[in-house]
Amino acid sequence: MNTQNRDKKENDFDTELVKEERKSTRNYIFQKNNITKSGTLIIVVLLLIVIIGIVVSGIFFEAPTKNP
């Protein structure tokens, strides 16, 4: 068996969740800029609309509590 041609596993455990705008790093998930902030705001607003819609539809279409 030829064991010399194995792929090396990359061991970068210094991945950051949020990258600052002026910081030079390559391992990050989110970047702190206006696009990320506005995208987060849009997602939060849509989730709130969905939650409010579920609650309102549960109240409006509530099944009768009496058993016929």
Question: Main attributes?
Answer:
68 residues; alpha+beta; 40% helix; elongated
Helical content band: 25-40%
Report the average pLDDT across residues.
77
Q: What structural class results from the helix and strand content? A: alpha+beta
Strand order of the largest sheet: 1-2
Low-pLDDT regions: none
The number of helices is 1
Give me the Rg, rounded. 24 Å
Helix-strand pattern: EEH
First-last Cα distance: 76 Å
How many β strands by DSSP? 2
How much of the sequence lies in strands comes to 5-15%
Q: Which word captures the global form?
A: elongated
What's the main sheet like? 2 strands, parallel
Write a structural description.
- The protein has a two-stranded parallel ribbon with strand order 1-2.
- 40% of the residues lie in helices and 12% in strands.
- The chain is elongated.
- It has 1 helix and 2 strands.
- By secondary structure, it is of the alpha+beta class.
Describe, in short, the structure shown:
The chain has 68 residues and is of the alpha+beta class. It is 40% helix and 12% strand. The protein has one helix and two strands.
Write the layout of secondary structure elements.
Elements: E1 16-19, E2 28-31, H1 34-60
Parallel strand pairs: 1-2
